[in-house]
Amino acid sequence: MTDTNEIDESKFDYTYVPEHLKERVKNCRELSVAERMTLVSELSLAAWEKLGVVYDPNKPRNKTIRRVKPDESVLRLSPDKVERIIGFLGYGNVSAKTWFIGLEEGLGKMTTDDTFLNLCSRGDFNEVMDLSDAHRRLLENGRPIEIEKKPPSTQVWRWMARIMLASSGNEDWRDPIAAKNYVRLVLGRTNGETFLTELSPIPSKTAADRPLLRWLAEMTPTLEDKLAKRRKHLRELMSMSPASMVVCYGLGRAADFAEFLEIDWEPVNEKIRRSHDGRCWLLPFFGLGRMSNSVVEELQGYWSSER
């Protein structure tokens, strides 16, 4: 444990307002003096918690603050934060013309500390977030993820960008710079042309390494019911969405995507499957070298023939 005096105050976010306190901050003039003092205290605690600092539960009458390990901090997530983590739907615009559906978010180059502190931050997410705004609240190697300044090197986002550029007829869709700039400025934005979601809202390192899922399952006995409710909500949103293209990625989980979408896949070739109505597509996983330009070129051919 370390004392708060050892914490770099430059990292303290004096303007941080968690989602559940925003309404009270907005209407603070209407609060009584006592209510304002309580709000000040709650804002301070929230900002400290963002750094992994909480009151020492072993000294409830002593307002000593101590630095705790990130996994200990996670254990103090409120029920509301847990509900927000489980109920998170995705990034971008649910009314967009294109939906991308993956299995679960990866953790990229996040350290163990990043992973648990980011889970705390996800507890303040809305159901749908702007990709860039959301990632400013998350850490990678201890630093905020600034997509517009230096987007992560994740191939998943780059392939999404190439597909969107190709579907719009952009001849530079193969250009890595064009794809990078699409991620920086367009992908998963609130009023944009894409919505990014996952079958599970709980990030993991790999399919076999899911510490956060195990922890939430232990903490939330009804986790599977809550995840099923989330999937139902996503299907309802999709049914109301004008989306003309739904792209799933991960051939090895074809059955899971089919169950979620309530469809049957029809094979197009070895690497592409589609729904009978041509709205939903299943492609190889976008990472680990499984996706290729040739797949996008084949998709272009189908799009051209159906226009």
State the share of residues found in helices, binned by percent.
40-55%
Q: What is the CA–CA distance across the termini?
A: 63 Å
- Largest β-sheet summary: 8 strands, mixed
Q: Assign the CATH class of the largest domain.
A: Alpha Beta
What is the approximate shape?
globular
Give the helices and strands as they follow along the chain: HHEEHHEEHEHEEHHEHHEHEEEH
Please, how many domains?
Answer: 2
Total of helices: 12
Low-confidence segments, given as residue ranges, are 1-6, 60-68
Which structural category do the helix and sheet elements fall into?
A: alpha/beta
Strand order of the largest sheet: 5-3-8-4-9-12-11-10
Oligomer: single chain
β-strand percent reads 5-15%
In the CATH scheme, what's the topology name of the largest domain?
Uracil-DNA Glycosylase, subunit E
Averaging pLDDT over every residue, what do you get?
A: 84
CATH-scheme architecture of the largest domain? 3-Layer(aba) Sandwich
Number of strands: 12
Cα gyration radius (Å): 21 Å
